[in-house]
Amino acid sequence: MKPKQKLVPLWAKIAVFVLTLIYKQVFVNFKRADIPEHLLGHPVVYQEDLIHPKIAKELNEILRELGSDETGFPSNAGQAGSDVTLEHIGDAQDPLPNG
Predict the structure, then answer these.
(1) C-alpha–C-alpha distance, residues 12 and 21, integer Å
(2) Helix (H, G, I), strand (E, B) or coil at 18
(3) Which element (helix H / strand E) includes 22?
(4) Is 12 helix (H, G, I), strand (E, B) or coil?
(5) Interior CA angle at 62 toward 74 and 68, to 5°?
(6) Are 67 and 73 in contact, with CB atoms under 8 Å apart?
(7) Is 5 left (phi over 0), alpha (psi -120 to 50) or beta?
(8) Which pLDDT score, from 0 to 100, does residue 64 have?
(9) 3-state secondary structure 37-65
(10) Nearest Cα residue to 92 out of 77, 80, 84, 76
(11) CB distance 66 to 73 below 8 Å
(12) How far, in Å, are 90, 94, 99 from residue 87 at the CA level?
């Protein structure tokens, strides 16, 4: 006679399944920044007061002033229509058949 097997409750199976999905999403599929090889492996250098506190305060005030009106920061992004082509980056060329 075979020994009696214990059945795993359904909630435990669901919990393992959900935890496996979470693990896969967080750790396996986690996308890191694509940093070029020549930029890796350098020491971090922290320089205190890189920008003098007085200058930093002035820059902060200028940025807050620029962003304080109803239009926010100046930009020409809204002026460009879909018919604008930028030849210097290849936009003027027709797309290739494979995209």
Answers:
(1) 14
(2) helix
(3) helix 10-23
(4) helix
(5) 55
(6) yes
(7) beta
(8) 85
(9) HHHCCCCCCCCCCCCCHHHHHHHHHHHHH
(10) 84
(11) yes
(12) 5, 11, 18
| Angle ∠(89,90,91) on CA atoms, nearest 5 | 100
Place of tokens 């693990």: 23
> Rounded to the nearest 5 degrees, what angle is found at the Cα of 42, between the Cα atoms of 40 and 43?
140
Query: Taking a C-beta distance cutoff of 8 angstroms, is the pair 57, 63 a contact?
Result: no
- Per residue in 9-64, pLDDT tens? 889 999 999 999 888 877 776 667 788 888 888 888 888 888 999 999 999 998 88
Residue 63, CA distances (Å) to 29, 44, 49, 60 in order: 38, 28, 19, 5
